[in-house]
Structures are given as C-alpha cells and as structure tokens.
Specification:
702 residues; alpha+beta; Helix Hairpins; D-amino Acid Aminotransferase, Chain A, domain 1; OB fold (Dihydrolipoamide Acetyltransferase, E2P); 6 domains; binds 2-(butylsulfanyl)adenosine
Length: 702
C-alpha cells in the first residue's frame, strides 16, 4: 500500500470504495506514525486523507462506520513496552486549516460560552504527547498517548530527560497525592542536527526530522541510548489528579480555576512551560496570534506545526466537554504544509560558472511551504547517495519559509521494488568533457574552460543585479548568444551592435535597443560591482566593496600583494589568494584590459567620510529589503531598484516575511499588495518613495 491520497472523482458508487480505501490508508499510516515511529508520508498528506474521509462521511453519513479512524486517536500501542491505562483519556485536537475554520469553531463556542471569553493561545509543538505521573510529588511513571486509552510505559527512558523534574518543587506546597502532567516531548533543531551529525559519522541511518528523532529516541530499548539524545519537554495540561489520598476521584479541589493558572502552577512546580503563549480576550486576537506564529515559526529553536487555542475557564471547559476524540474547548490551527510528497522524475546536473556540477531534482510540481516547487537542488554526489533518492520514486519535498526547497528523502514503501540508484554522470551535460571529482572533495567539476555551460553562467553572473545589473541579459539570452558563437566572454558585450543580433530568435528590434542601452549604461558602475561581476572565487559583494574602497582602482587591486589584500577588513587570506590567482591568469588580464578599452569604469567613486558608500550616497536603506510594485513617478523600475541598491538596500521581486516595506506605485500587482497585508509588511505610497530613500524611515501612516 502506498500513500496515494489523490482524490478520485467518478461515479457515485465509487464513493463507498474510496471511503473504504481511505479508512485503510489512514489506519496504515496511523500505525506507521504512532506505533512504528516510521511515517511514510508527511503530516500534511495524512491530514488530507483524514479530511477527505471526514468530508465523505459528512456527505454520506449512512456510509460512515462505527470504527472509522476519524473517531479514533493515535494507534494501537506496540507490545515492546508495557501497557499503561490512561484513567483520563488522552484526546487529540480538532484541526482548523484556515481562518474560516477557526472562526467556525469560535462560532460553535459562542453558543455555549460568553461572547468574549478568555482564550489561551499556545504553540503546537511538533513532538510526542507524554503523560507523566507523580505520586506524592515524586516522578513515578511516563506513558505515551497510544490510542488515547492505553499508552506505552516509557518511564525508564523519560527519566533520562533532564528537563523533567524528578520531584515537584515544594514552592507549590503539599504535593498532590496523584498528579498527571501532560505535555510534549520534543527535540530542538540544534539537538536534531547534532544527532544527525553523530549518526552520519557512525554510518547510522539519518533521521528525517526532529519529531521522528524524538520518537525514535524515546522508543529505545536501552535508556542509556535515550540518555545520549537531548530531549526536551513542554508541559501544557494536567490529566488525572487527586489532592489527597481519598477514594473520590478528585479528592479535594484543584488549586486553580483557569488554564493559564494551571500553566503557572506547573511552572512553579518545576516543569518547563512554553513562554510563547498569550492570554487573549477574544477570537480576533487568537487569530492574530496564529498568523504571527505562522510567519515566525522559524524564529524558534524547535519545530511547531500550528497553534492551539484553548478556553481558559476550566469550568467552561467542563461545560463544553468533548467528542469521542477531541475536546470542544480547544482547537489546533495548523500551518500550511512544509513537507509534501511528489514524483521525482529525474536527476539532472547543472554546470555553474566555476564548472561545478550540481545535481538537482526534477519534480512533478507540488505546492509546499507557500509556493510551487518543481526543481530542488541536491547539492552534490554524496547528498544524493546519503538521501538515497532515485528517479521514478515518490519523494518528500520540504520547503521551510523562505529557505530553498529540498528533497528530504524517498517515501519508503516496505517490500516494494525500487528503481536503480542514480549515478553521477561522467561527462559534462553542456560540453561533453569529463566531469572530475578530486579525492577528498565533495564537489564534481567540469574542467573545460571553454565549456559553453560555464561561459553562460559566468556571463549571466556578470550581468546580474548584484554585479553589472544589465537588464534584459538573462541566462536564456546569454545561452542563445553563446551557443551561436556571438559571445565568448564578458568583454564581447561592449562591442555588441544591433547587427550582432541579426537572425537570432527572441531579439526584437526594440528589445535589442533596450539591451544595448543597458549594456552601455553598465559602463558606469562602480568598481566593486565590476569586481563582483568578474566572478573571482570566494569574492562576493562584501569583499568586492572592501577591496574597491581600499584600493580605489582596478589596477591597484590587480597589482596588490597578497598580504596587502588579506589585510583589508572584510577580506582575508582565502579571498586574497583567490584574487591573486585570478589576476595571474593572462586570459583574465586580457579580459580586464578589453573591458577598460571598451570604456568600462575601473574606479570606485571616492567616498565621503561617514556612512556613505561607493557612490557617495548615504546608506539609508542598509540591509533592508524594499519591494517595488507598479509604476513610480520619476523612476523607471530599474532606476528605483538602483536607488535602493545604492543606499545599501535590496529589492527582490517578491514580498516575503523579510520585506521591510512594499512601495506601491500606479497599477500595482494585487498579489504583492495582498501578501504584504497578510504578512503585516508596511505599505508605502509611491509618492513617498523619494522621502523613503532619503530618510530611510517609514512615513507615518495616513
Ligand atoms: S493540548 C485534549 N497543547 O497536539 C487536548 N496539545 O494534535 C490535549 N500538542 O496530542 C492537547 N502542542 O500531542 C495541546 N500546546 C499544546 C500542544 C499539543 C502540541 C500535540 C499533542 C496533542 C496533539 C493533537
């Protein structure tokens, strides 16, 4: 059985069949996740299966079965650990996947509780639910959730977790006779990465994410192994409790009446309680909490997959009660998926400007982490081997926020026949020359300096925004020019005329004129941009600016001694050696000489003292990301972006959580504006652009 969750449409009699299939798929994956700690599919795919079954059950109640997995929690416990009966069942949470679903929950609440009831907003920690039993204040037993009624006894393993107190702090007074604290065992991202480094060094299997590592670590037969795994815990609930040794269930009264006070009590008793929570007065603030953490989830040192909203008043919680699987007084707001599965069609290799051959995955496009991903880097040969991804198989793709998408690994189907492993090509896909991997290095290179693939990348880099910023000189066009023999190196650009493009497809007269103008204009870039454009290994924007400011002219940089280069702040021995090596090459020197003859500026404009950069402009936007949309009065798009760059800012094409401001001109892109609104990115009227450049301050709204 596979994880195929695709919705099938068809005749009405397909519905019972699909429901049966969904039930068995859900049971299968539930078991892999909860009992075997070895999920085959990402949580988001699993959630999609459950939602589909729920929808079908709602539409066809007559087809819903009594033992449907939608009515159950977790999975049957394994037999490896002794069973532990939960006297108060450990329930799951209902999920909301959108603001509308969250609002629907609030609407249901409103029928039973006062309109603006206090809510506690918490993070939904991506770990494992754990029940900790304290008898007379002393840690006695730890159990997993299991199926909600019976869990597994993992006391010996949990006892190794330093953050979990061995006894309650006397600060809370006389310890209750029985106290069951519930919370989440998790592994921090740093601990996860450290564990995987150790696993790799020992030639052991790598864990795919912190949650699986935490689960695997807890399920060790030998607690000594668990002790080597840095596990952590957040307490978020009290389960069973009895104040005194009396037969009745509660045996006295619990000292507090609200959830927040319970959390504070737990903290005083010595349990870690997550500080990133908020007590709010109503639904709107709860939604704002969810949205905030949806944007900031990666600011935390551990993984969360949503937020949990709980009714604060414990008496109201009792009134609201629970369904068979989840309380009505709480809801989980789940963030959009960061992991999805898709088909790995092929692994191809791209050639960079240094000749480095980088394998990348060609995927069936999949929406993950907020965007559609069709290609993902695989870094190098070792990574492909380590991840054991094979073309023709379904793989897990992960995209966390603004981070580049990555292929995590194959979806493992036990017993299934696998396609053969991928092998690194031995010849360059661009020039057919040999690909070489030096012993001890992880990267593979095409060593042919005439390789057209490398040329294309070098020249496209020269024209890129951080270098000479030649609008209209994208990779595709450079590729056409290189392959038709019209462009061999960057100096050739400056001898281009309209005739150069004769007979080339994709170059209309108007765009040729624009391109020639852009090339012409690039002659006036400051030296540091030219240095970036030359593509000297290790020499990026910061190093180029430092060298340009320190030496002032291209000649001075080219003639400088290695020590003098290395002495520049922001440079160092590695960059210095690389610069010297680059200028030692007669081919490179010849290109620089031809650039000079073509009138390309070889000097860095003198900087005034104080906070000004190469162009003599105050760095009012240093380090800030300003996105422009629509037409601005007095600036072409290029001029606006250049003005931002000159002041130390960047102007990426799209709005993200890192955007400092969105400048909105005439006919703006609706998606950028709405995204900015959603992310809380300040929007600046295009008319105020000049003021923004000058002051580096956001205008007061209004
Ligand atoms: S409250 C009856 N609070 O999410 C309600 N659960 O999908 C008990 N979880 O089983 C859960 N963070 O393992 C609660 N702040 C939090 C949570 C949290 C993570 C987990 C927990 C639960 C699962 C439900």
């Amino acid at each position: 059985m596979g994880p195929d969750g695709g919705h099938r449409s068809g005749a009405a009699d397909a519905v019972p069949a699909r429901m049966a299939e969904l039930r068995s798929l859900i049971e299968y994956h539930n078991d892999r996740y909860h009992r075997l700690d070895d999920p085959e599919i990402p949580d988001a795919d699993f959630d999609a299966l459950v939602r589909e079954l729920r929808t079908l059950e709602a539409a066809h109640p007559e087809l819903a079965t009594a033992d449907s997995p939608t009515r159950e929690v977790g999975a049957t416990p394994s037999t490896q650990f002794a069973p532990v009966r939960h006297r108060v069942p450990m329930m799951s949470l209902d999920n909301a996947f959108s603001a509308a679903e969250l609002e629907a929950w609030a609407g249901r609440l409103a029928k039973h509780v006062p309109e603006r009831t206090t809510l506690v907003c918490e993070l939904k920690i991506d770990g494992l639910a754990m029940s900790l039993l304290y008898l007379d204040g002393v840690f006695a037993q730890a159990a997993t959730r299991g199926d909600g009624r019976t869990g597994e006894d993992v006391t010996a393993n949990v006892a190794t977790i330093g953050e979990i107190p061995g006894r309650l702090d006397p600060a809370v007074g006389t310890a209750p006779a029985v106290l069951e604290v519930r919370g989440e065992v998790y592994m921090s991202i740093a601990a996860f990465e450290d564990l995987n480094r150790r696993q790799q060094a020992a030639g052991e299997k790598l864990f795919v994410n912190p949650r699986n590592s935490a689960a695997g670590s807890l399920r060790q037969k030998d607690p000594a192994v668990t002790a080597t795994r840095a596990l952590s815990f957040w307490a978020y609930q009290v389960g069973e409790w009895r104040i005194a040794h009396e037969p009745d269930r509660h045996g006295g009264s619990w000292p507090v009446t609200s959830h927040e006070a319970t959390l504070e009590w737990l903290q005083r008793a010595g349990f870690p309680v997550n500080p990133e929570r908020r007590v709010v007065g109503g639904f709107d603030e709860a939604l704002a909490f969810c949205r905030y953490w949806e944007q900031h989830r990666h600011d935390l040192g551990y993984e969360i997959d949503g937020a949990v909203i709980k009714v604060d008043d414990l008496r109201l919680q009792d009134v609201l009660g629970a369904t068979s699987r989840a309380p009505r007084w709480a809801i989980a707001y789940k963030f959009p998926p960061e992991e999805r599965t898709t088909m790995l069609r092929a692994i191809e290799v791209s050639i960079g400007r240094t000749g480095k051959a980088t394998p990348f995955a060609v995927l069936d496009p999949v929406f993950v982490g907020g965007s559609t991903v069709a290609l993902a880097t695989l870094h190098n040969a070792d990574q492909v081997q380590l991840k054991d991804v094979r073309p023709g198989e379904t793989v897990i793709v992960r995209k966390a926020g603004d981070v580049i998408p990555e292929v995590v690994g194959p979806v493992r189907r036990p017993g299934g026949r696998r396609p053969p492993p991928w092998t690194f090509p031995t010849v360059c896909p661009s020039c057919g020359g040999p690909l070489v991997r030096l012993p001890g290095e992880s990267d593979t290179f095409c060593t042919n300096l005439d390789c057209p693939g490398q040329r294309v990348q070098r020249i496209a880099h020269f024209g890129s925004r951080s270098a000479m910023d030649i609008e209209g000189l994208g990779e595709q066009r450079v590729d056409l020019l290189v392959r038709s023999g019209r462009l061999l190196d960057v100096a050739d650009l400056y001898s281009f005329t309209a005739d150069t493009f004769a007979g080339l497809e994709g170059f209309a007269a108007r765009s040729v004129a624009n391109l020639l103008a852009a090339i012409g204009e690039s002659r006036h870039r400051p030296l540091h941009r030219l240095l970036v454009g030359l593509g000297v290994r290790h020499l990026g924007e910061v190093g180029s600016l430092a060298l340009a400011r320190a030496f002032g002219t291209m000649d001075a940089v080219a003639e400088a001694e290695e020590e003098a280069l290395a002495a520049v702040d922001g440079v160092g021995p590695v960059i210095a050696t690389s610069v010297v090596t680059w200028f030692a090459s007669p081919v490179n020197r010849a290109v620089v000489a031809r650039l000079g003859s073509a009138g390309v500026s070889m000097v860095e404009p003198v900087t005034a003292p104080g906070d000004v950069a190469g162009g003599g402009v105050p760095q009012s936007l240093a380090g800030r990301s300003v996105v422009v949309t629509g037409t601005l009065d007095g600036y072409t798009r290029e001029e606006a972006e250049a003005a931002i760059a000159e002041r130390g800012g960047t102007s990426p094409a799209g709005v993200s959580g890192k955007t400092w401001a969105l400048v909105v001109g005439a006919s703006p892109g609706a998606s950028k504006v709405s995204k900015a609104a959603r992310l809380g990115v300040p929007v600046v009227d295009g008319a105020r652009f000049s003021a923004l450049l000058e002051s580096g301050e956001l205008p007061e709204p209004g």
